[in-house]
Amino acid sequence: MSTTPVIDDACGLRERKKRETRRAINLAALDLVEEKGFASVTTEEIAARAGVSARTFFNYFPSKEAAVIGTTAEELESYAAALEEETQGEPPLDALRRILAGMLAPASVDRELRAKRRRILLGEPALAPALVGNNIRIENALTAALERRLGVRPGESLEPRLTVAVAIAAVRASIEHQQNGGSGRLERNIDQAFDRIAAGLR
């Protein structure tokens, strides 16, 4: 008799527990930063709040900055897959607008976590350097996906990387506008930024 279903169930359980642990650490980090401010939070406190050991914390995230930002390899893969899957009539820039705005949207699958993450990113300028590194990871993943979508070899054309870089810059500028007391809602500012890009900046 085949044992494949048992193996599949065990693998599925392990993956689910990993996702739950990763989410618990991310949520603990966000909660603590909201309560105390980013500078006052330690990785030990995050681990304790999440109910894991310090060693387990570092198995999932390399730093407290990474735990707060919380972008995982699985999320990067899902963003890349969404871009690579061409929607009829949707230009790459519009697809990037939808995907990047969705990363910040509280209406996403995990509403509580994403809403907290968004508040922290808007309220903690100290996270800016870590966000730059996170943006580079996202940029590389999306560039590779757009190259596959356009059917070009890696590095063959500047267009995919330029398109992704400009899209990420639009979102980053909108966030920094909010962080510095700028007017308007984040979603509306992101839409306006992409409209300006599509029209061609003067």
TrEMBL record:
InterPro entries xrefs: DNA-bd_HTH_TetR-type_CS, Homeodomain-like_sf, HTH-type_TetR-like_transc_reg, HTH_TetR, MftR_C
Tagged with keyword Transcription regulation: yes
DNA-binding region as annotated in the record: 42-61
UniProt keyword annotations, A-Z: DNA-binding, Transcription, Transcription regulation
Protein name per UniProt: TetR family transcriptional regulator
Organism: Terrabacter terrigena
Entries under PANTHER family matching the protein: HTH-TYPE TRANSCRIPTIONAL REGULATOR RUTR, MYCOFACTOCIN BIOSYNTHESIS TRANSCRIPTIONAL REGULATOR MFTR-RELATED
Keyword presence, Chaperone: no
Domain HTH tetR-type: from-to ranges: 19-79
Superkingdom of origin organism: Bacteria
